[in-house]
Amino acid sequence: MPNQYTSPTISQYATAAIAISVIMFSDRAIAQTSVAVTPTRNEACEILIVGGGVAGTAAAYEGLLAGRTVCMTEITDWVGGQLTSQGTSALDEAKKQRSLWFFPQGYTEFRKRIEKEYGKLNAGDCWVSVSCFIPNTAQSILMEMLQQAEQKGNGKLKWFPNTVIKNLELSADGKLIDSAIAIQHRPAPNTPPLNTSPLSTIIEEAYRYENSSRLQKEVIRFVPLKNTDPKIQRPSDWFVIDSTETGEIIALADVPYRLGIDPRSPLNPSSPVTKNDSYCTQGFTYTFAMEQTAEPQPQTKPQFYDRYSPYYGSDPKPNLANFDTIFTYRRIWSAKAEINKDESAKSENVKRNAFGVSPMKVGDISMQNWVWGNDYRPGTDRDNLIYSREQLQQMGQLQPNGWMGGLRAETLKSGEEIALGYYYWLVAGTTDSQQNTGWKKPFPNHRLLTGANSPMGTAYGLSKYPYIRESRRIIGRPSYGYPDGFTMSEVDVSQVDFGSEFYRNNLSEQKYRDLWRSLAGLGTTATIRNDTPPSEIKRRSRSTIYPDAVGIAQYYLDFHPCLSEYPVEKAGNTEREGVRNGHAPAYPGQIPLRSLIPQKIDNLIVSGKNIAFSYIVAAGYRVHSYEWSVGAAAANTAVLSLSEGILPYQLVMDLPRVNPLLMKLQQQLTQTNNPTAFPNTSIFNLDWDDWKIW
User: Fold this and answer.
1) Interacting residues of 487 by C-beta distance below 8 A, sequence separation 6+
2) C-alpha to C-alpha distance for 3 and 303, rounded to whole angstroms
3) 290-316: b (≥16 Cβ within 10 Å) or e
4) Can you give the pLDDT at residue 340?
5) What is the structure's pLDDT at 339?
6) Global pTM?
């Protein structure tokens, strides 16, 4: 097994992670006042990528293939985000897109390398996906891909792990990022490695200039690589790409953005609120890996377990109330080779569970990412993870050198605790918050995998960073049809039944009419001119087609809603009512360039989950292949802007009129196998029945 976790004895680390976590959680840092210091060195680049997740890795990959000098910072020491440091190493994909291998070039290459590494695409024989694998394997593959892209494209990668951006220095008119001040940290002398401590214990220290008892710092200034080509006069010699998991740079630059639930409107009609709720975002998850053992293992009850035990449960669906089901759902390593599924009908000896995969076996490793398990879903101003703009202002984080990452450390800590408690519930718990069937019994023949060589690469067994499902989302620049700023909305991608009673009852007569006019496709003008009643409007059966499309995405609009009351783990707590109203399949969709371009700052491009879309669209535009597509689009936009001596907004400022350079960018993406549209995308094609999600 490539990069398989091994240890000298089967129980060596059975209790270590719980003990370490208790010690570290109690060792809270004392608040300090941060002051600016002089950077020790300058690092020049043409593209500065902040955040090394899936989108950041994709951007680096494309930038290097194009021969550019790329700097990439990352708060952890792994590239790959969801695939690696967040531990969600089970690919979320749409069925037909997968069958056609219709993905961005780098993502396709990654999938091929996973299959080559293991000899099969699904190393875990999981049932949530056709590909489950071990995170540290993915880390090795992605680093190798970046190194080879650097060589192939004659680019240059400057990789800065354990690094955060503290401050931005803007031009005199405030329209350009002139430089970015970063802090890189490493363990202080005679202290344990960084991945010994959970993120919550060091995150506040990571954003302070001063050294601490645990961290030594180096302050670095990132600056543009000076243009040496006299033929090109550039308005900016570099571009900064915000690929952070929570939209750090858009918050720090204070460009317009949204956070949380958008108010109900004809374009986002499934929203449960009439005013923005910035505190209710989708839940975040610290994943972990556990291995089945032949013998029972000692299981240590965490001191905080009783606080969270009322939360834990299998799933509201009765068929999921089964330990084998939970374990094999995201099994990332299957210990024994099995007969191929296509051959299983030929053998009566091959046993498979209700979901078509082999039952759990000794040596199997499962990654846990479960809604009523290690999801943490705060929804109030007392416990929200991502601070709102108002909260940041009150805390002084938007003042010069005041930025501290924009996250609530106490909520990170709670997320870490609920995850470790969930492991204990799986192996020792007997309650179930979602079922009354009495199925839950102790399953002690398991161990939490910990250590530097474990799947998650941490001493405490959790992922290095939580899986973030929803971020700050920019409001794009005003454009044709979008006077208040561009954004993608629910009606642009959703297949939900907008003719149902909910929409008739919760929208005014005029807003309901406006909703259906927006769904009329080619008939929109006629419905307005003729004042056609909604009941007579034929709905288009495709997503919105954008003239500035630079990428693709398709996934179910899938929600992990915030909970109704504080604290999350309160007994009997329920999901915020109405958040799942938009839960529905989505049509194959596009990523418009306008969604990557923020207001105010001209050399800032956004990617990842930070682009201009509503919280409902974000529920589907958050999976691995989407992130790769938007990262590739961001990098190619930066590359073309450097080559042509323009700013990205100039590519879309005259839409819907054709821009030759925009067409050049789209051709560049297509020629490098980074599709901007699904096959047969056309305003006349309404036949998408075979593009089902699953």
Assistant:
1) 258, 473, 475, 476, 595, 612, 613, 614
2) 33
3) bbbbeeebebbebebbebbbebbbbbe
4) 45
5) 40
6) 0.94
Query: What are the structure tokens assigned to 371, written together?
Result: 């809604």
Cα-to-chain-centroid distance, residue 590: 18
The highest-confidence range among 20-34, 86-100, 428-442, by mean pLDDT, is: 86-100
CA angle 544–546–550, rounded 5-degree value: 125
Rounded Cα distance, 387 and 251, in Å:
10
DSSP 3-state of 546: coil
Please list, in sequence order, all residues whose beta carbon lies within 8 angstroms of the beta carbon of residue 495, skipping any fewer than 6 positions away: 584, 585, 586, 587
CA distance 205 to 528: 57
Both tokens assigned to 489 = 């909305």
**Chain length of the chain:** 694
For residue 9, name the pLDDT band (cuts at 50, 70, 90).
Answer: very low
Q: Give the integer Cα–Cα distance in Å for 71 and 241.
A: 10
Q: Dihedral through CA 665, CA 667, CA 673, CA 674, nearest 10?
A: 40
Residue in the block written with tokens 């030594």: 216
Report the alpha-carbon distance of residue 235 to residue 117 in Å, rounded: 44
Is residue 415 within 8 A of residue 466, CB to CB? The reply is yes
DSSP 581: G
Predicted confidence (pLDDT) at residue 18 exceeds the cutoff of 50 = no
d(CA 274, CA 368): 35
Share of the chain above pLDDT 90, in %: 86
Q: Is 104 helix (H, G, I), strand (E, B) or coil?
A: coil
Helix axes 105-118, 54-65, angle to 10 degrees: 110
Residue-wise burial string across 148-186, b where 16 or more C-beta atoms lie within 10 A, e elsewhere: ebbeebebbbebbbbbbbbbbeeeeeeebbbbbbbbbbe
Q: Which residues pair with 187 in a beta bridge?
A: 215
> What's the CA gap between 611 and 577, in Å, rounded?
26
What is the Cα gyration radius of the chain? 25
Q: What element of type H or E holds 552?
A: strand 549-553
* Residue showing tokens 């067409």: 663
How far apart (Å, rounded) are the C-alpha atoms in residues 275 and 262?
A: 7
Q: What is the phi/psi pair of residue 328, to 5°? A: -80, -15
Average pLDDT value for the chain: 92
Write out pLDDT tens, residues 596-620: 999 999 999 999 999 999 999 999 9
Strand pairing category for 549-553 and 257-258: unpaired
Question: What is the tens place of the pLDDT at every residue in 335-377?
Answer: 874 444 444 434 434 577 778 899 999 999 999 999 999 999 9
Backbone angles phi, psi at 173, to 5 degrees: -90, 0
Angle between helices 624-644 and 54-65 (to 10 degrees): 40
Closest CA to 53 of 676, 651, 661, 634: 634
Looking at the DSSP assignment, which residues form a beta bridge with residue 292?
446
Q: Token match 């571009």: residue?
A: 239
- Tens digit of pLDDT for each residue in 236-267? 999 999 999 999 999 999 999 999 999 999 99
Query: pLDDT tens digits for 316-338?
Result: 887 888 899 999 999 999 987 44
Q: Return the pLDDT at 231.
A: 83
**At residue 23, what are phi and psi to the nearest 5 degrees?**
-65, -45
Residue (of 83, 76, 80) closest to 465 by Cα position: 76
Q: Which three-class secondary structure state does DSSP give residue 689? A: coil
Beta bridge partners of 164: 183
What's the pLDDT band for 1 if we cut at 50, 70, 90? low
pLDDT at residue 283 tops 50? yes
Q: Which of 558, 674, 545 is nearest to 622 (CA)?
A: 558
Compute the distance between CA of residue 365 and CA of residue 334 in angstroms, rounded to an integer: 7
Over range 414-437, report the average pLDDT.
95
Q: Where does residue 286 rank: exposed (0-12), middle (13-18), buried (19+ CB within 10 A)?
A: buried
